[in-house]
From TrEMBL:
<feature type="compositionally biased region" description="Basic residues">
    <location>
        <begin position="53"/>
        <end position="62"/>
    </location>
</feature>
<keyword id="KW-0472">Membrane</keyword>
<dbReference type="InterPro" id="IPR005899">
    <property type="entry name" value="Na_pump_deCOase"/>
</dbReference>
<dbReference type="Pfam" id="PF04277">
    <property type="entry name" value="OAD_gamma"/>
</dbReference>
<feature type="transmembrane region" description="Helical">
    <location>
        <begin position="6"/>
        <end position="27"/>
    </location>
</feature>
<feature type="region of interest" description="Disordered">
    <location>
        <begin position="50"/>
        <end position="72"/>
    </location>
</feature>
<keyword id="KW-1133">Transmembrane helix</keyword>
<protein>
    <submittedName>
        <fullName>OadG family protein</fullName>
    </submittedName>
</protein>
<keyword id="KW-1003">Cell membrane</keyword>
<keyword id="KW-0812">Transmembrane</keyword>
Length: 89
């Protein structure tokens, strides 16, 4: 009876080990075969991000007011509004 339990234990552990080994091999092989596709996709994403950055910089240069001054003015307005709301309670 105990020997049947030990045999079942060994068979179960071997099955789980083989399943995990197979899973590891499949994931590794997929990673190897899809490496070129992943690199191309990463390159396209980086190019798109760089293009967005270039457009944003061009838009900032065209606007005439620097972004820091614009942010400082907006921050001043927000703080003034908060102080006014707090004092009018």
């Amino acid at each position: 009876m105990i020997s049947d339990g030990l045999i079942l234990l060994a068979v179960g552990m071997v099955v789980v080990f083989l399943f995990l080994l197979l899973l590891n091999l499949l994931i590794s092989s997929m990673s190897h075969f899809l490496r070129d596709h992943a690199l191309n996709e990463e390159k396209m994403l980086l190019e798109a991000e760089a293009e967005k950055r270039r457009k944003k910089n061009a838009r900032k240069q065209r606007s005439g007011t620097p972004a820091a001054a614009e942010d400082a003015g907006r921050l001043t307005a927000v703080i003034s509004a908060a102080i006014h709301a707090h004092t009018s309670r």
